[in-house]
Amino acid sequence: MNTREVAKEYRLTYWSGVMQERQESGMSIKSFCASAGFSTNTYFYWQNKLRETACRELAAQSENRNKAIVPSGWSVCNTAESAAKSKALTIEIGSFKVTVDENFEPQLLTKVCKALLTLC
């Protein structure tokens, strides 16, 4: 990490604290900025920078999740221990629960999962 990146991280951390402090104060943005000694334009500039950074990080995380075995928004329900005891797989999507055994047809499971995702 070079000095420019370190400085950027420092500023983002500082302004993140300012945003949190303003929110916890319960003051309006205009009043808070006046009492802190900076303009509302500066406040909104850094708020925008923080949002852009957060969106980039979420997009990067989303890309990494898409490469994972478990799709985004899903969770693994069976632990390794319980999966070893039974030869069935349980998938929960929203309020729906699908259990398949070792004789399932992958194409059918794919269709069922896609249908459930459209309902959630």
Walk me through this protein's architecture.
It is built from five helices and two strands. With 120 residues, it is mainly α. The chain has two domains: 3-66, no CATH class; 80-119, no CATH class. It has a two-stranded antiparallel sheet with strand order 1-2. Strand 1 (89-93) and strand 2 form a beta hairpin. The longest helix has 27 residues, at 40-66.
Number of domains: 2
Strand content is 5-15%
Helix content: 55-70%
Number of strands: 2
In the predicted model, the low-confidence regions spanning at least 5 consecutive residues are: none
Described by strand count, sense and barrel closure, the largest sheet is: 2 strands, antiparallel
- What integer value in Å does the Rg equal? 23 Å
Mean pLDDT level: 79
Strand order of the largest sheet: 1-2
Structural class: mainly alpha
Net shape: elongated
How many helices in DSSP terms?
Answer: 5
What is the H/E string?
A: HHHHEEH
N-to-C CA distance: 41 Å
Summarize the structure.
This protein is mainly alpha-helical and 120 residues long. It is 65% helix and 8% strand. The chain folds into two domains: 3-66, no CATH class; 80-119, no CATH class.
Keywords for this structure?
elongated; 120 residues; mainly alpha; two-stranded antiparallel ribbon
Write the SSE topology.
Blueprint: H1 3-25, H2 29-36, H3 40-66, H4 80-85, E1 89-93, E2 96-100, H5 106-119
Antiparallel strand pairs: 1-2
Helix pairs in contact: 1-3
